Amino acid sequence: MTSDAQEGPLTPVAPQPAPARPNPLTSRERRRRRRKARHRGEEILGWILVPVILFGVFWGVNAVLEAMGTSPGVVWDQLMQVKAALEKKM
């Protein structure tokens, strides 16, 4: 098997030419990249702000109900009583 190997001096490899300067971006390509970056930023901001807003609404509703001397569970029970009373009436 080793006799099949071609052993001999290695030939030098020519150095790779330096890469050519890339062409400047067109206005359309620059706009496309700005739009992609903006969409990415909006997506990240959305993933952060939506939970914060939902938590704020939840906290605000609880604070208002607590200030009124009640809780969401009591309000829900009262709404179910009103629903039951209206269903009996019909």
Structure characterization notes:
This protein is mostly helical. The protein has one domain (26-89). The protein is 66% helix and 0% strand. It has two helices and no strands. It has helices spanning 27-67, 72-89. The chain is elongated and about 100 Å long. The chain starts with 26 loop residues before the first helix and ends with a helix. The model has no long low-confidence stretch (mean pLDDT 89).
Runs with pLDDT <50, length 5+?
A: none
The rough form would be described as elongated
Query: Would you count the extended β strands for me?
Result: 0
The percent range for strand residues is: under 5%
What structural category do the secondary elements indicate? mainly alpha
What is the average per-residue confidence, as pLDDT, rounded to a whole number? 89
Could you say how many structural domains there are in total? 1
First CA to last CA: what distance? Answer: 97 Å
Order of helices and strands: HH
Share of helical residues: 55-70%
Q: Count of DSSP helices?
A: 2
Main sheet characteristics: none
Rg, Cα atoms, Å: 35 Å
Short description:
Residues 12-22 have a biased composition (Pro residues). The chain has 90 residues and is mainly α. The chain has 2 helices and no strands.
Secondary-structure blueprint:
Layout: H1 27-67, H2 72-89
Which features does this protein show?
2 helices, 90 residues, single chain
